[in-house]
Amino acid sequence: MAPHTEQLTRPAVRLRGLTRSFDGRTVLDGIDLDIPAGQFVALLGHSGSGKSTLLRAVAGLDHEVTGSGELSAPERVSVVFQDSRLLPWRRVLDNVLLGTDGADKGRAALAEVGLAGRERAWPSELSGGEAQRAALARSLVREPELLLADEPFGALDALTRIRMHHLLRELWERHRPSVLLVTHDVDEAIVLADRVLVLDRGRIGLDLTIDRPHPRSYRDPLLGEYRERLLAALGVTEDLA
């Protein structure tokens, strides 16, 4: 399902001239970017290209952004990391509700991600996929206008990752937050997102709209052209992919 037109008329994220340096090395070099409300965006780039740095800046977690940067984002922002970051001394429901009130909302969020009945489980009793589902539930309970995901499926096995792709897309269809997904996986970006950005030498080197209906399959030959364009932007040829 394509994002609602009326949702896409107002920006959820607006960056102008966003710059970040570490020890004299410029990682983000005057980034300009608008993400409309309700849009699902994936961000690709080589290791060390600044993907997570950009996400942290949007999340308001990096206060060392410099330059003439203008950064605006919604008030309700949730972040999902590669590590679920569940507190081992709190049960699953307590982890989901961390910093919020309303047990019923927590149970509803757990049910949405397929963890109904696991409210009293300890994090150590969850599989990797279940832990990430709990992390998604923790973000949902805050009713985010913007969901930031930093390689949330990178540590999962291939089958679990595909299941989580379906789940994330279903949750986006239902709640329609803006999503910025950082990933190193070109296929993951194509299957999930409606727009894919490639970060190259501190700037957005490619801004590509994926104009294919959902659900998408990795086996869809019509996605091959998008894959080739993204790999080329990353400096990778099919012979090396």
Strand content: 15-25%
Order of helices and strands: EEEHEEHHHEHEHEEH
Give the biggest beta sheet.
6 strands, mixed
Unreliable stretches, pLDDT < 50, 5 or more residues?
Answer: 1-8
CATH architecture descriptor name of the domain at 1-50 and 61-76 and 183-241: 3-Layer(aba) Sandwich
**Strand order within the widest sheet?**
5-6-7-3-8-9
What is the CA-CA span between the terminal residues? 30 Å
The number of distinct helices, counting runs of at least 4 residues, comes to: 7
Helix content: 25-40%
| CATH topology (fold) name of the domain at 1-50 and 61-76 and 183-241 | Rossmann fold
What's the alpha carbon Rg, rounded to whole Å?
18 Å
Look at the structure and give the mean pLDDT. 90
CATH-assigned homologous superfamily of the domain at 1-50 and 61-76 and 183-241 = P-loop containing nucleotide triphosphate hydrolases
Number of strands: 9
Structural class category = alpha/beta
The level-1 CATH class of the domain at 1-50 and 61-76 and 183-241? Alpha Beta
Give the overall form.
Answer: globular
Pfam families: ABC_tran
InterPro entries: AAA+_ATPase (IPR003593), ABC_transporter-like_ATP-bd (IPR003439), ABC_transporter-like_CS (IPR017871), ABC_transporter_ATP-bind (IPR050166), P-loop_NTPase (IPR027417)
Keywords: ATP-binding, Cell membrane, Membrane, Nucleotide-binding, Translocase, Transport
Domain ABC transporter: 13-226
